[in-house]
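Reading a protein record of the kind used here takes only a little practice. These numbers are not coordinates but entries in a learned vocabulary of local backbone shapes. Here is one such record, which you should read through line by line.
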Amino acid sequence: MIFGVVRTTALVLADRSGRELKRVPMADRGGNAEPYLSRFQPVLWAVDRDTIVRVDRESWSVNKACRLEGNGGGRGPYVGRLWVSPAETEILVPRPYSGDVLVLDPADLSTVEELSLSGPPIEAAAVAGGRRVVAREWKTGSLLVADRSKAA
């Protein structure tokens, strides 16, 4: 099993008894990593505060990192929980400080689309066959909606 440790910048790989086998360093951004394991390839994606990382599950090393928010170090802006489409063709990343949701290509973490919203999103998901993104507003929990220019 693999899990993130609160207020650290590493994932922990453990055996069934919970014994630590390996620490997987991420982007050193001080985030609370929550890994998303791919069902189709030997990778996982996780957010380290303001940076998304792609980890190779064979070598357990970061093979790509992309900073998505903020311009300073330390405890600056962060991104919300990532959402991966069922076919793993796109990743949505809410950016509460920018008031938008980024649509990323899972292979290289490049930005495919940027969806502006009427408030700061903390969680987001694609619905209606990928034609619409719904999000939860960071402070109020209100529903935010964006129609997409292209569907996944």
Summary: The radius of gyration is 15 Å. DSSP finds no helices and 14 strands in the chain.
